[in-house]
Amino acid sequence: MAAPVENIRNFCIIAHIDHGKSTLADRLLQLTNTVDSRNLKEQTLDTMDLERERGITIKSVAVRMAYLADDGQEYILNLIDTPGHVDFSYEVSRSMAACEGALLLVDAAQGVEAQSLANAYKAIEQDLEIIPVINKIDLPSADIESCRRQIHDVIGLDADGALLTSAKEGKGAKELLEAIVQRVPPPQGDRNVPPRALIFDAVYNSYRGVIIYVRVVEGVIAKGSKVVMMSNNERYEVAELGILTPGFTPADTLEAGEVGYLICNIKTLLNTKIGDTVTDAQNRAAEALPGYEDVQPVVFCGLYPAVATDYEELRAALERLQLNDSSFVFQADSSDALGLGFRLGFLGLLHMEIIQERLEREFGLTLVTTVPNVAYHVRRTDGVQMDIENASKMPPSTEIDVIEEPYIEADIMCPTEYLSAVIDLCKKKRGIHVRVDYIDAKRCMAIYQMPLAEIVLDFYDRLKTLTRGYGSLEYRLIDRRPGDLVKLDILLNGESVDALSSIVHRERAVLLGRKLAGRLRKSIPRQQFEVAIQAAIANRIIVRESIKALRKNVTAKCYGGDITRKRKLLEKQKAGKRRMKQVGSVEVPQEAFMALLRVTEED
User: Fold this and answer.
1) Is 499 helix (H, G, I), strand (E, B) or coil?
2) What is the per-residue pLDDT across 83-133, written as a single tens digit (0 to 9) for each?
3) What is the pLDDT of residue 60?
4) Which pLDDT belongs to residue 322?
5) What's the mean pLDDT when you consider all of the chain?
6) If phi over 0 gives left and psi between -120 and 50 gives alpha, with beta otherwise, what is residue 581?
7) Which residue in 87, 273, 342, 532 could disulfide with 350, CB within 3.0 to 4.6 Å?
8) 478 and 495, same domain (yes or no)
9) Do 499 and 559 lie in a common domain?
């Protein structure tokens, strides 16, 4: 029997990275006896090996808890634990669509950080009830009053009712559960109308097909009923449904306000779309739920199988992974150097790393990744407009009128003592100063506009280094602006390697070309002939490096005797190497591509 709607609370935990979301979720699971104490471990809801190794949440996870409140009633609490890193903000917005309330966690020692602000604004846009929570009050450096002021001044929330917790020690967890019951509104859905359920996530199971996670907004879905996907009119029978505890617990029905899963024997991945609406086939709803906005990738790279025969396996793996993470996109691509592969779009560099690592671990693939880049807008002299995500597709410079690059507005929070270092870093990255807001005597927020391409590779790492780990970054795309950009080609023995082409600012082209050529010279093994590595802009060579030929000592068998005999052997060897150079090709090893990813300004 489903719980009454007025006794259900759907909420998520949002915060900046490493402010204690997953640890707080552990305490709530422990306090409500949802997970047996023998099975409880640190970050229980972080089930992926990658999450546990890196200490970050990558996937939002839903779990249902039963809580007996002080008023004597039992409440059903559906919690969604969300990621904190800026690259996974799409996961957060999807989770919020399934909730009525949000716990906004703020680290008592760190204060309000960039993602705290960004996630709070997302929650306000979704009209969620926000409960401010000051966590880690057990730390010696905790400054609770400063946190209250920052929540009030920076975010604009009333911080007088902020709850004080220590997720590590369990302090304040009971009061937090009471606040959720009292302050988060119950769902509004009517259970007597045609059902509508929002698909907010899905996973693929080899034995059971696609398992979809839903939030039932209206009506009732029963086991054995016929359902239809409203985006493509595909019909299925519900073989099993149930709740997430956090494992799969079967039930007979899912009613309005509840969060759970459906297994409908969906065999093909193409028939499942995150954000789609599920309704009853016989008692169909009039219109679909709003769903989610389509994701806009900002970072692109090529992904190729190291073994050419793994191409179809890579395609199948990408399709399965996209079901679980719909925030990346992919399309087939080919390269002269690397063969058949795919062009992928991501929300950031960490997102790219995680997808690549998941493909290698979960599907046993060995992959080669090209240098990441952003999408440029090109207007040709004949008036045709193009979006270029791959430098090798760039038209000749004589046919280009204007190249526009995407710009972002970055909010960088840091202690005031590191502000000058942050300003210098932003200047090097072609940043345009907007303003500096002083949060209090010790912290400030610098707002800069800069090209997205400048922050893609190493900006976040360098920001963390310069601010001793205290700096935080949040950014959003604002527009496209014309730039003095050129295509940098890398040539091996006069042949352009399309996978190594990149679009760079003209001022940095020589410097970057020199670094790339230097890295390649160290990474490519020596051949029987000399290999010329060149960097070129519009067919003009700007940098050259050479890999000397391996030399076999052909005169070793000559013990003394006439010098002309030795010269004849050396001339014969030289002629052979010339012939070999004409027909020989240079293989670029995977290590060379990986080395190019690590080219930074500090080399």
Assistant:
1) helix
2) 655 556 666 777 777 788 888 888 888 888 877 777 888 888 888 888 888
3) 61
4) 77
5) 78
6) alpha
7) 87
8) no
9) yes
Assign 603 a pLDDT band (cuts: 50, 70, 90): very low
Please, which residues bridge with residue 543 across strands? Answer: 535
For residue 444, the one-letter residue type is: C
Domain match, 34 and 156 both: yes
DSSP 47-110: -SHHHHHHT---S-EEEEEEEE-TTS-EEEEEEEE---SGGGHHHHHHHHTT-SEEEEEEETTT
Report pLDDT digits (tens) over 17-68. Answer: 777 777 888 788 878 877 666 555 554 554 455 554 555 555 567 788 888 8
Q: β-strands 502-505, 485-492: how paired?
A: antiparallel
The pTM (predicted TM-score) of the whole model is 0.71
- 190 occurs within a structural domain: no
1 contacts 258 by C-beta, under 8 angstroms: no
Contact between 412 and 421 under an 8 Å Cβ cutoff? The reply is no
Token reading at 347: 């929300």
Cβ neighbors of 439 (< 8 A, separation 6 or more) are 111, 112, 150, 153, 154, 413, 445
Same domain, 510 and 550: yes
Residue 293 lies in a domain: no
Cα 87 to chain centroid distance, Å, stands at 4
Rounded alpha-carbon distances, angstroms, from residue 215 to 177, 205, 258: 21, 20, 6
* Paired tokens of 533: 């590595």
**Residue 375, helix vs strand vs coil:** coil
The answer to whether 189 and 257 have CB atoms below 8 angstroms apart is: yes
Of the three residues 482, 497, 522, the one that is the final residue of a domain is 482
365 and 420 inside one domain: no
**Last residue within a domain, chosen from 438, 464, 482:** 482
Strands 400-415 and 376-380: antiparallel
> Where do runs of H (alpha helix) occur along 336-468?
349-363, 419-428, 452-456, 459-466
Least confident piece of the model among 148-152, 244-248, 297-301, 558-562: 558-562
Cα 51 to its chain centre, rounded Å, is: 13
Counted residue by residue, the chain has a size of 603
Per the structure, the count of domains in the chain is 5
